[in-house]
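Sequence, please.
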């Protein structure tokens, strides 16, 4: 596995853990520590990929929009 694919895998792991944590606690009550625990990583690792909680939420929203857009395109 290449370093780039490992990095992308960890990024996706963080995003999935954030989705789970935001779903359970809500954005405002979710803490980065909880996301790190859900991802099985240290809190500092999240900051290697995302500047903060807002950027993490923006990534989730962007991925969701892209998935929705791609599904719409597939139906055309």
């Amino acid at each position: 596995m290449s370093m780039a694919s490992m990095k992308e895998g960890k990024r996706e792991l963080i995003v999935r853990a954030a989705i789970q944590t935001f779903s359970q606690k809500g954005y405002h009550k979710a803490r980065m520590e909880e996301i790190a625990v859900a991802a099985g990583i240290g809190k500092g690792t999240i900051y290697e990929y995302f500047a903060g909680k807002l950027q993490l939420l923006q990534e989730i929203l962007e991925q969701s929009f892209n998935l929705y857009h791609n599904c719409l395109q597939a139906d055309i």
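Residues 3-25 form the longest helix (23 residues).
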